[in-house]
Amino acid sequence: MTTKQSIDPTILEKAADWLVLLHSGEMTEQQQLEFQQWQQQHPDHRIAIERATRFNKNFANLPNTLNINQLLNSKTTLQHTILKKFIWILSPVVATWLAYQYLPWQLWQADLSSKTGEVKSITLEDGSSLTLGSNSYVNLHFNDTVREIELIQGEIYIETAKQPPKHKRPFIVETQSGAIQALGTRFSVQQNKPSSSTLVHVFQHAVAIAPDQQTHRTILQQGEMAQFDQDHIQKVEKLQQTQPYWTQHILVVENKPLDQVLTEIYRYRHGQYFIDEAAKSIKVSGVFSLRNTQQSIETLAQTYDLKLNYYSDYVLYVSK
């Protein structure tokens, strides 16, 4: 198995500076020449630009302009939220700067990643199967003593492979909350943001959960799920699904708040939604496509009598 090489953060920082200048529209001919020369000075320079460019593709799909006045006049309740969360849509320069400041090197240097809306499956060197959900990033740390996956962002589903009796290596998923060790199993792990909590679903056998700030482990059995952070594990609950349907681009929900359902749909879709308080707690049940998210949103609107107000292809306000 091959993994991506680590690149000096100072090189990545310089790559980000070049990208900001490149998107500014103010790059001179001399600067363009210097940019080309910098890329040719070392292979890591070119790789850093490629990674930064690939990482910023999501931003490139956003509109260059947004009619803020129209937006605020139409929905005064959105004034502060739109100004705070969507000012970066106005300029690709600002978008690149935000990527540089707040979505930095960990994601750029991830060994494996998936795009927004993509579900990607990989066979690991030990024969285990790893599936990445939309917009997910992982690092792989496999050696003679351990098989470890570091989940930086997103969601993964794992089917572990059997190990030779004389050379068994523990299979561990590390998250911001702690460690999950497979006990011969099929399970999924989701790294939630911005809360930094971790959600675990066990579909076969069991896993052992160890929050960073605890000295003991909790065993999660087949058909169970739990959410945990660095300090504690929340109540273990019964798992309603027998398999991770998201690996097939399907979202199956039963009696879930509308806000949670839209959050899951928007993990597979570019843009952002806002929802009226009166609509957040509407209970939703059904099967929805994660491949055609627009159709899923329209189905929700028809089924639950919702109003959909689009302010661009990437900004949606949902109300009752």
UniProtKB/TrEMBL annotation:
* Residues of the FecR N-terminal domain: 14-54
Query: Boundaries of each FecR protein domain copy?
Result: 111-203
Domain of life per record: Bacteria
| Record-linked InterPro entries | FecR (IPR006860), FecR_N (IPR032623), Ferrdict_sens_TM (IPR012373)
Q: Name one Pfam family in it.
A: DUF4880
* Gene Ontology terms, MF aspect: sigma factor antagonist activity
Q: Which PANTHER family match?
A: PERIPLASMIC SIGNAL SENSOR AND SIGMA FACTOR ACTIVATOR FECR-RELATED, PROTEIN FECR
This chain belongs to which protein, by name?
Histidine kinase
What's the source species for this entry? Acinetobacter populi
For this protein's source organism, the top of the classification is: Bacteria, Pseudomonadati, Pseudomonadota, Gammaproteobacteria, Moraxellales
